[in-house]
Amino acid sequence: MRNSLLDRFRGAGGTSGSSGAKTFRADFTASLVVFLVAVPLCVGVAVASGVPAELGLITGIVGGLVTGFLPGSSLQVSGPAAGLTVLVYEAVEQYGVAALGVLVLISGLLQLAMGALGLGRWFRAISVAVVQGMLAGIGLVLIAGQLYALADAKAPTSGLDKIFGIPELIGDVAGSGDALKALAVGVGTIAVLVLWPRFRQGAKVLPAPLAAVALATASTAIFDLPIARVEVKGLLDAIQPPGGSEFQALAEVGVIGTVLAFTLIASAESLFSAAAVDRLHDGPRTDYDKELMAQGAGNAVCGVLGALPMTAVIVRSAANVQAGAKTKASRVLHGVWLLIFAVLFPSALGVIPVATLAGVLVYSGWKLIPTKDLVPLWRSHRGEAIILVVTAGAIVITNMFEGVIIGLLMAVAKTAWETSHVHVEVSGLEDGDGAGAGADDKPLHVRVRGHATFLRLPKLLDELEGLPREREIELDLTGLRHVDHACEMALATWTERHNAVVKRDAALEERVPA
Question: How far is Cα 387 from Cα 324, in angstroms, rounded to an integer?
């Protein structure tokens, strides 16, 4: 019986007998590490998203017990992610917490459908620059919003308002003793997150996020600081299954856009995370379609419970691999520990300062920004760097969905531009250079080769305009592998007009007496 249970979880290097027992012990230990990493992140993402803290734990539990049990990626861990915080906050502000379940449920069903149709692998075709720009934009908006939470202040709604409101926030904090105390706790949390990994022995025993939250919470309690704490409602009270009135909101165009944004971003982040996790271990590779369906099943369950959307989370996944996990048992067990914690110790959340969680998310937001990759990317692939920056800026200026769409359109345009290679070959120019009388009357033969699209049309016309104006043109398009309608019409019109002008000028010269 015991061996059969181990066999069900085996899938990334497990063997039978004593090796199976060692595998299970490794998974058990890794699950505890992932649990300790997940608790502060689940709670922090929920608070930053504007929903009860318990909803973050529910999503983490579903990520372990549902998504973790399904096939797809053996060692990847799912739960609420900082990458969706901004989008969830905007959705909650606009449609309310009650509507969140509908949005997440429909997104999960779409993911299930895409996985069943074999579309999972196509997410690997999304430009990496767009994904990095998306994460960078999320990171910038997340940091800007959590700067207010560091001082127990309410953040403005839009990304630009958050950024432009920072000078006023600084003035308000400087004049408030309580705000300065909250800020000190939040900044201290960030300092621990940065410095803790340098103490390797301590980091092996206690993950940095949990150490930072524990130290900040203890300091707040010891000095009895008058700063805001996390509000606790209880696990069952936080669950809000969507009703009929919430489903009626699907008729709104804005809701559909939000659902598509949830689906696109959650799927892309999960599958890109899976590719990254695959590089960290030697076990079975991810089946992208099955992983997409697993994420969809998890999000569908989260939607029914009215919880936050989930994605695969690289921080938890990397911790799982580094802790020595061998099979998916580790991620399932981490969901069990989250469930036990949420049921038995919910009041423990009520002592955590909000500023501490804000510090965790500021640090997480900074990690989303590819600061180390931007300069090398600019040097080697300038177009990709521009797409990254524009995508991030568009998300800050507009919103998540529109920013990602702008990035995708730029990536498509860049690819079309780079593949539209056109070469113009001209023969007959030498006939007009001292070749004798009547040589200038011979037409030039112009052969166009490659791919002629509207994107290359200005360059193509500039080359044609540089040809001698007194010579007729014979345009040969047989060397083109592709020519779009706009380019074909423009070339034909230019040639016809050019030759008409040449004939007209020649006729005028004949009328003028020598």
Answer: 37
Q: In the chain, pLDDT over 90 holds for what percent of residues?
A: 18
Rounded to whole angstroms, how far apart are CA atoms 79 and 59? 6
The Cα-based distances of 56 to 24, 47, 68, 208, 253 in angstroms read 27, 8, 16, 19, 27
3-class secondary-structure state, position 72? coil
Sign of dihedral through CA atoms 380, 383, 389, 392? negative
| Of 179, 178, 161, 182, nearest in space to 170 by CA | 179
Go through 456-468 and write b for each residue having 16 or more CB atoms within 10 A of its CB, e for each that does not: bbeebeeebeeee
With contact defined as beta carbons under 8 Å apart, do 395 and 403 qualify?
yes
Q: How far apart are CA 388 and CA 160, in angstroms?
A: 18
Cα angle for residues 477, 478, 482 (degrees, 5° grid): 75
Q: With cut-offs at 50, 70 and 90, classify the pLDDT of residue 507.
A: confident
- DSSP β-bridge partners for residue 361: none
pLDDT at 154 over 90: no
Burial of 440 (0-12, 13-18, 19+ CB in 10 A): middle
Beta bridge partners of 425: 447
Taking only the tens place, the pLDDT of each residue in 419-477 is 777 888 888 777 655 444 455 668 888 898 888 877 778 888 888 888 888 888 888 88
Structure-model confidence comparison of residues 419 and 295, the more confident one: 295
pTM of the model: 0.70
Burial of 154 (0-12, 13-18, 19+ CB in 10 A): exposed
Contact 407, 391 (CB under 8 A): yes
Q: Which of 52, 86, 131 is nearest to 307 (CA)?
A: 52
Answer whether 304's CB lies under 8 Å from 101's CB. Answer: yes
Q: Provide the residue type at 389 as one letter.
A: V
